[in-house]
Write a structure and sequence with these properties.
Length: 225
């Protein structure tokens, strides 16, 4: 049955307008993005197929062009649209972070980190530079490594913090392997960076591990700082 034949209050678009986006299921939200289905499948049916294929929304949104286009009814045009939506979400959250709003909600900060680095196939080390009021000055992907490790040099982090006149920093790096728990090396580099930055009166507020899937882990919340 086509969506246009559904009762009005059950159609995804009308439901969103009447009750807000948060009232919709993942499949209904994705159906609005898709707009139309394919022969034998409504947009909602097609959305369910996509979610079943990829397992999670995050995996779908971060699929490669080839993976996405391999699904019947999908193609490079839809892939480009999806990537544009994802980049808009990243930029919107980045604007909120710059305004200092994210620091009122740790969940929003974690969401921003997930959007920024969880999908990357390589390990990257990000430094968020903050002013005295904990407002973001700049977020810098300072080191890039292999799938399993990143070489992080405290001297470079200290130099960056001094150059941008940061009063404090938040550290973050992703685990493409999917591991959420910090390794021994993660704990050691956090200690080394905290000690090095303390020498120039810059405080490390937190260090986040951002797995490929799932919620980032906060060193501060785990009592590891």
């Amino acid at each position: 049955m086509a969506i246009t034949d559904w009762p009005t209050d059950e159609r995804p678009r009308e439901k969103l307008l009447a009750r807000g986006a948060q009232a919709l299921t993942d499949a209904e939200l994705l159906a609005i993005f898709l707009r139309v289905g394919i022969k034998g499948q409504s947009a909602v049916d097609l959305a369910r197929t996509l979610l079943s294929q990829f397992g999670k929304v995050n995996r779908l949104c971060n699929a490669s062009a080839d993976e996405f286009s391999s699904i019947p009814g999908m193609g490079l045009a839809k892939y480009a649209q999806l990537q544009a939506v994802m980049e808009l979400a990243r930029r919107a959250l980045a604007e909120r972070l710059t305004e200092g709003i994210l620091f009122e909600s740790p969940a929003d900060l974690k969401n921003w980190l997930q959007l920024r680095i969880s999908h990357l196939p390589y390990e990257t080390f990000c430094v968020l530079l903050l002013d005295v009021r904990h407002r973001l000055i700049e977020a810098v992907d300072l080191f890039r490594g292999t799938l399993n490790q990143t070489s992080v040099y405290p001297r470079e982090v200290v130099k960056l913090a001094l150059h941008r006149n940061a009063a404090s920093v938040i550290l973050a790096h992703n685990h493409p392997s999917g591991a959420r728990e910090p390794s021994g090396a993660d704990k050691l580099i956090t200690r080394d960076l905290r000690n090095a930055l303390a020498l120039v009166d810059v405080k490390v507020l937190d260090h986040f591990i951002v797995p490929a899937h799932g919620e980032p882990l906060s060193f501060a919340e785990q009592g590891l700082l």
